[in-house]
């Protein structure tokens, strides 16, 4: 039995990597320490429903703030990922278990207990499954909607790279409100940062979502501070707009352990503002660009703004 708390067992493929000293965080990266009654309540509901969260597995810095508002991002299909991205803290390897048929119901139940108006559901990559888990995503979306008809649903999916392209339709036809898939970084850094993925495949996936159902909102994000330059970030924005992506998130990369990809630099808050301004200029409906931005950070409030922005654009506000 693997001990996923032990870094060497959690990331066996990273044991041979060189040690990258983690630099001290600058003053502008300040987070609320986890704790408090509401935080514990969120934790309890996750445990009772036997759910995994990306908040914990990825070591998200915002967990203190989000969980004290009952906002947890549930991660379906297990806690072991079949990819080995060099930025990510989720355990890697071959999952030993199949999919849990009770999981969609447990997610739906947790959404009800947390009284969520907006839920974000993500997953590990499951390259071992023929449909990459697309069917399980669809079942989970439907279970949440049945039990919580007023709750809006945002999904953050893998890229379904090795699957038949038609599996994407399974997910889109379940009609999540927001379809998010992160590009994570600029194309030039893919071989180092996201070696198992393909930049243009991910971009095309998001474009196809819009082609299948233009009413869905699409969202994608990148991390900065991995070694990209500013021109490459602007070029990613252009690619995203060409794929008709509505919502862009940009956040600072934070290195989970010394064996992960090194932090190239801490991007200053002013630069995040410049990215935000440029992105709005390029036509995104919604942009979140701050050091602590993560895909699901403030996702409920941002969804309301996103919807309003579309109504305004259509002249229906
Ligand atoms: S930003 Fe997202 S992943 Fe991080 S704690 Fe909040 S909900 Fe969880």
Task: Describe this protein's structure.
- This protein is of the alpha/beta class.
- Helices cover 37% and strands 13% of the residues.
- It has 12 helices and 10 strands.
- It has helices at residues 7-10, 37-48, 54-57, 63-67, 103-114, 134-147, 167-173, 190-193, 199-212, 230-242, 269-281, 299-313, and strands spanning 52-53, 74-76, 80-81, 91-92, 118-123, 152-156, 178-180, 217-224, 247-252, 286-289.
- The strands form 2 sheets. It has an 8-stranded mixed beta sheet, sandwiched between helices. Strands 3-4 form a two-stranded parallel ribbon.
- The longest helix is centred in the last third of the chain and has 15 residues, at 299-313.
- The protein starts with 6 loop residues before the first helix and ends with a helix.
- Bound molecules: iron/sulfur cluster.
- Iron/sulfur cluster binds next to helix 3 and helix 4.
- Iron/sulfur cluster (SF4) is lined by residues 54-55, 60, 62-63, 66, 71-73, 294, 296-297.
